[in-house]
TrEMBL record:
Stretch list, region Disordered: 1-26
InterPro entries reported for this sequence: ANKFN1, Ankyrin_rpt, Ankyrin_rpt-contain_sf, FN3_dom, FN3_sf, Ig-like_fold
PANTHER family (alphabetical): ANKYRIN REPEAT AND FIBRONECTIN TYPE-III DOMAIN-CONTAINING PROTEIN 1-LIKE, WIDE AWAKE
Protein origin, superkingdom: Eukaryota
ANK repeats mapped onto the chain: 102-127
Keywords for this protein: ANK repeat
GO BP, one annotated term: regulation of establishment of bipolar cell polarity
Domain Fibronectin type-III: 202-299
GO cellular component, one term: spindle
Keyword Isomerase recorded: no
Protein name: Ankyrin repeat and fibronectin type-III domain-containing protein 1
Record-linked CDD domains: FN3
Length: 689
């Protein structure tokens, strides 16, 4: 069949006056001709679809050319061009795993010419080997056929060029001869690459760790040898016997973006042995046993049968909130204030009417009081009013109560932006008590509703961890929200942040700036804080450092600036699970009388954790600027492992008991380097959620 295709190709090329000169000429001619002779039947009723059909034809033609360009780039060993095409098109658009007329795939050409860089790039993109090569014999026969037919074609064209007089046809045949000579050398190189290849060596650094009570995770590296052919897949095998007789299961990994595999559905408390082997075009290489040699699926909770700390808490809180709402539906706060004095009813009614009156506007200046500002940003732009002011509304112009209590209450309210109307109705009934705190909090709810109404949006975002205060007596509570869609707002417009900072004229002196000026000066820091607060840790086990400091009205916790929703930390490993055996060892270490317990046995999961902890403790001490010799007085929190969503877990490193929380006026001998800040504990807890 292939010989007949080559003869048809020769006849077609002889009839066509112009001829290709690139090495892929024969292949592209064959494809183009086969496409031209396809019949396309179009009825008159389909005339309205003709334009769409032409566009589809052009698109397919364009993608066909990109597929041919990929083959040519691989054959010419042009790594940059291969990477460019893979970046520009998807694997489906490139027909990455569709064989060409010679029955080859781009990956076949790369591995048989032993071009490891291109082969690895193709494998990362999801490339496969040709399904035609079901055995070593079939691959060898196919390559021999390609070499033989290419050699025959070269001989035929050579004879024609020698025997014919110089003319246009002769010049065309010379071009064809050069193309086929190049292809003949390519096929010979591929055949030689296949014949000299050998099976791959065993993978290196094969490690197994306990991922959960029913799974283990296997990680490994490529074989060290560079003389073998490119590895295209790996096989993970597991068994309850160290001899793997009988085997319990195996999995073939042909997507090589990440060299790891999780074995699921195992029995807790049972030892499983694991080995990994590599494959190339010559077959499977020898297996490599894991270190440690086996793993026992388990979880640290099995040590004492402890249930997850947060199990059912979210559901219980939702149920409790539902009960509160139900009880308030029939409460006096939803009646027309019948128990309140008439004058009080009139003032509250008037204030509510004023809230939704068209005359309600954003403030331009501050006049000694408590205010709310909402910062909405998108890329380098920020929402401002038509007067180029950041949206600000007044909370209370006679504010004199304890700020921190009210501010922390406000941060909790920020978790219920959609429930402000309901909260406001519930607080209204308490106005008769004339409590300063309740009065202020009711005004906070009114200000939130006013901001929501003026902007036309309920979600005002995240509260910045501390209010802005100036010497004029103004206090500014700041909320931040990133807008990622083309959302429309009322009474505001987008302007670049830099333009707002340069165009706004300060109404205060540099020595005593107002809260608004202070906000504009530090606005980029606040945007950075907001973005960093939404970052999440990658899956893994971490070592965290708990350091608190107390003040008169609050306790603050030390956190990194670039991840303020998490304690200071370093990563121990990528596997977040602590097995039962590891936890038992940690318990023994925590209760040991000696400062440093004996090192566990080699080639065990406990020894691996011991070494990982040693590295992590040194890194964490350096990070928070604590001398390493002081680490002997620190201790691991051994009551539990802190779990965050199942993919992130923490072991806590605690200072000596007297230094966990620094009291007011107490000097901290070890001041962390730059890049840290202290958050109010309640703010940290909200961010952690």
């Amino acid at each position: 069949k292939m010989t007949q295709q080559m003869r048809d190709l020769q006849l077609a090329q002889a009839r066509k006056p112009p001829g290709p000169s690139s090495p892929n000429a024969a292949k592209r001619l064959y494809r183009n001709l086969s496409g031209k002779f396809r019949v396309n039947y179009t009825s008159f009723d389909e005339g309205s679809l003709a334009g769409r059909g032409e566009k589809e034809k052009l698109r397919k033609s364009y993608l066909f050319q990109s597929n041919a360009a990929l083959f040519e780039a691989v054959e010419l060993q042009d790594l940059d061009r291969v990477q460019e095409l893979l970046k520009q098109y998807s694997p489906e658009e490139l027909d990455l795993n569709t064989p060409n007329s010679e029955g080859l795939l781009p990956l076949d050409i790369a591995i048989m010419t032993n071009n490891a860089p291109i082969a690895k790039v193709l494998l990362q993109a999801g490339a496969k080997e040709s399904p035609h090569f079901v055995s070593l014999e079939s691959r060898s026969l196919h390559l021999s056929t390609l070499v033989r037919e290419a050699e025959q074609r070269v001989n035929e064209l050579t004879a024609q060029v020698v025997n014919e007089a110089p003319n246009a046809d002769c010049s065309e045949k010379e071009k064809q001869l050069k193309a086929w000579e190049w292809r003949y050398r390519l096929y010979k190189r591929m055949k030689a690459g296949f014949e000299h290849a050998r099976v791959p060596d065993a993978p290196t650094n094969v490690q197994v760790s306990v991922a959960s009570s029913s799974s283990v995770q296997v990680t490994f590296w490529e074989p060290l040898s560079v003389n073998s052919a490119v590895v295209t897949k790996y096989k993970v095998e597991w068994s309850c016997s160290p001899t793997f007789s009988p085997p319990l299961g195996e999995a073939v990994i042909d997507r090589l973006q990440k060299l790891h595999f999780t074995i699921q559905g195992l029995v807790s408390g049972t030892a499983y042995y694991v080995q990994v082997s590599a494959y190339n075009m010559k077959g499977w290489g020898p297996p490599q046993a894991s270190v440690p040699p086996f793993a026992i699926p388990s979880n640290w909770r099995e040590y004492d049968g402890r249930a997850p700390r947060r199990r059912g808490q979210a559901e219980a809180l939702d149920h409790l909130l539902g009960q509160v709402k139900t009880s308030h539906q029939h409460c006096v706060c939803h009646e027309p204030c019948k128990n309140q004095p008439q004058s009080r009813k009139h003032s509250v009614s008037k204030s509510l009417k004023h809230l939704f009156h068209p005359g309600s506007k954003f403030l331009k200046t501050l006049k000694r009081g408590l205010y709310l500002t909402a910062i909405f940003y998108k890329d380098d732009n920020i929402l401002v009013t038509h007067e180029d002011q950041i949206p600000v509304v007044e909370i209370d112009d006679t504010y004199s109560c304890l700020l921190m209590q009210d501010f922390l209450w406000f941060t909790k309210v920020s978790c219920m932006w959609d429930e402000i109307l309901w909260l406001r109705q519930c607080v209204t009934v308490s106005q008769s008590s004339c409590s300063c705190i309740l009065q202020t909090r009711f005004k906070m709810l009114l200000a939130i509703s006013q901001m929501q109404g003026l902007l036309g949006i309920q979600d005002l975002g995240q509260v910045f961890f501390e209010p802005i205060k100036d010497k004029q007596g103004n206090i500014l509570i700041v909320t931040l929200k990133e807008v990622k869609t083309n959302q429309t707002f009322e009474s505001v417009r987008w302007v670049p942040i830099c333009k707002l900072q340069t165009s706004r004229k300060s109404v205060s002196s540099p020595e005593e700036p107002t809260a608004l000026d202070m906000l504009l000066i530090s606005i980029q820091d606040k945007l950075d804080y907001h973005q960093w607060s939404s970052h999440a840790l990658s899956p893994g086990l971490y070592l965290g450092y708990l350091k608190l400091c107390s003040a008169v009205d609050q306790i603050r916790v030390l956190v990194p600036e670039t991840l303020p929703n998490i304690l200071c930390h370093v990563k121990i490993r990528s596997n977040p699970n602590i097995s039962r055996e590891e936890w038992e060892w940690l318990q023994k270490m925590a209760s040991a009388e000696e400062p440093v317990p004996a090192e566990p046995e080699a080639e065990t999961s406990q020894n691996q954790l011991f070494q990982e902890l040693q590295v992590a403790v040194k890194a964490l001490m350096t990070l928070v600027n604590i001398p390493l010799q002081e680490a002997k007085d620190f201790r691991l929190y051994s009551q539990e492992v802190l779990d965050f969503g199942g993919q992130v877990s923490f072991l806590l490193l605690l200072p000596p008991s007297d230094d966990v929380c620094t009291a007011p006026g107490q000097n901290n001998p070890y001041t962390p380097r730059s890049g840290f800040l202290t958050l109010p504990l309640q703010i940290f807890e909200l961010g952690e959620e």
